Amino acid sequence: MFPLMKPRLFLILGLALGLTAFGSAFAQMTTDSTDKLDAAIALLDAGKPKEARAVLATVDKSDPKRAIAKGYDALCLYQLDKLKFIKSINTAEMQAAQLPEGLREELDYRQIDTLLFYRKFEELLPKTVEFAQRHADSPRAETMAEYQMAALYERGMKNLGDAAFTRARKGDKDVADTAKRMQAGQDNLQQFLKLATDSERNGYQSLTNRDLATEVVKALAALGGEDEALKLVPLADRENMALALIHLHNKNDTDADANLRRMSDFLNDFPNAKSRPRVLFEMADVAMKEAWRLKTERQPDKAAPYLEQAHRLFNGVIEDSEGGVMASDVLEARESMLMIYCQEQDYTNLSHSAAQLVANTPAGSPTWLVAKLYDAYGLVYQKKLDEAATELDEILATGFKGNPSYDGLLVSAAEWRINVAKKTKDEATVQRIAQQVQDSKCYASLKRTFAKRFVTLLSPPAPTSN
Questions:
Q1: What's the confidence (pLDDT) of residue 379?
Q2: Please, are residues 284 and 313 in contact by the beta-carbon 8 Å criterion?
């Protein structure tokens, strides 16, 4: 019988040796991954997330600690690319992963921080409640109140700003939408103020880039209690707060006269304010927008004084970084002056200013395009159609880019070029320009709008084959 037992014995011994080898390999794998995790965490702590990711990528997919490695990889992404971080932690794999409490808490916290960074308030607020429940013993549970306050404040101001924008753009055409946004904004700010009061905080402790006292005052002002709010501000801070309220009203208030009066009062109350150049620039912008609004409503007499004020203020804009006026603001002022000259029918200064901008900015840049476009407008109004056509053709030659900042200007040039062609009875050019826009990589919504305006000019679609 003994010889018959040998194969079975060898089988048992083989299994035993195999299990021993597997156990050794498993132990080695676990040891290796632990070392790799330790090394990656050390690199991450040292501010080297790219290097940490390279180490984490070497953890085998079958390793039991793979999920933990993926968690730390997400933390690396938080430092490198917040958008990729959000996508990483929202995967089904990461949501279902069994992670150590400390790592899960860190990921949840960083997710909330990233949602605030991207202003995803609707997602952020429930996440703060979930965090406090899920990690009740965490010292960060108290920090969630700060994220709630910040989100409510930002969402409230955004809703009020959106309401003002809707009111300015649509007037009385969409009263219900404006009222809905306004009410939502007021509700958000009231919740913010309640949290700020209930917490008895002197300021943000974790969100150190925010000023709670300023936000409280601005929220009160936005809710109609500006006089009461200003009483809360120490005398030494009155100038900064008055400036903050100017910016707030310019964003949320469509009453141009009230905004201009508020800015004029600021200049009188603080004649030596460092921010004086910035306030003058914003006054010019408000006056320009009001002039344009009245012009579009066919009230040129009412628009004239605002246009004159905008002319005077924009014409005096110079770069002053300390005063809050940057080089980009100077370019904006020069572009606005072109619009003003066009409205005033001052074609000599329009042509001169446009030529200066064209000479001093890169060909094909947005400012270059704006300058050429306004010059073309002036030439059309002067009935210099051949010169206008040349300017517009030069604009169109730069090509559509699939970018609304550029393509909107080129669509305007195309529309004006078609108008010029119609005036000269050049039907071939009308069809050519319409087809050029249709065949281009123009930003999709702009192309659709253009197509609706000029649908009769566009070629019919090619017949489909059976």
A1: 95
A2: yes
Q: What phi, psi does 320 have (nearest 5°)?
A: -155, 90
Q: What do you get for the CA distance between the two ends of the chain, in Å?
A: 82
Helix ranges restricted to H, 223-299 = 226-231, 238-252, 256-269, 276-296
User: Which of 256, 249, 252 has the alpha carbon at shortest distance from 303?
Assistant: 256
CB 334 within 8 A of CB 357: yes
- The encoded tokens of residue 457 equal 């000019």
Question: Which structure tokens are listed for 429?
Answer: 């050019």
Q: Is 320 helix (H, G, I), strand (E, B) or coil?
A: strand
Rounded to 10°, the helix 366-381/347-360 angle is 160
Q: What number is the average pLDDT over the span 225-241?
A: 72
- HSE-up (13 A, CA, CB side) for residue 461: 4
Q: Residue 172 pLDDT > 70, yes or no?
A: no
Residue type, 382: Q
Classified as helix, coil or strand, 325 is strand
Q: What's the CA gap between 237 and 249, in Å, rounded?
A: 18
Q: What residues have CB less than 8 Å from 311, skipping those under 6 apart?
A: 337, 340, 344
pLDDT at 61 over 50: yes
Selection from 316, 318, 368 nearest residue 340 by Cα:
316
pTM: 0.59
* Pick from 78, 76, 81: nearest CA to 111: 78
- Taking alpha carbons only, the member of 299, 287, 225 closest to residue 260 is 287
Q: Cα 264 from chain centroid?
A: 30
- How long, in residues, is the chain? 466
439: its two tokens: 């065949």
Is residue 275 a contact partner of residue 323, using CB atoms and an 8 Å limit? yes
Split at pLDDT 50, 70, 90, the class of 142 is confident
| Long-range contacts, 118-126 (Cβ 8 Å, 24+) | 118/82, 118/83, 118/86, 119/154, 119/158, 121/151, 121/152, 121/154, 121/155, 121/158, 124/151, 125/151, 125/152
| Tokens coding 217 | 């005052």
Q: Which two tokens stand for residue 369?
A: 């395009």
Phi (first) and psi of residue 325, to 5 degrees: -110, 115
Q: How far apart are CA 305 and CA 301, in angstroms?
A: 8
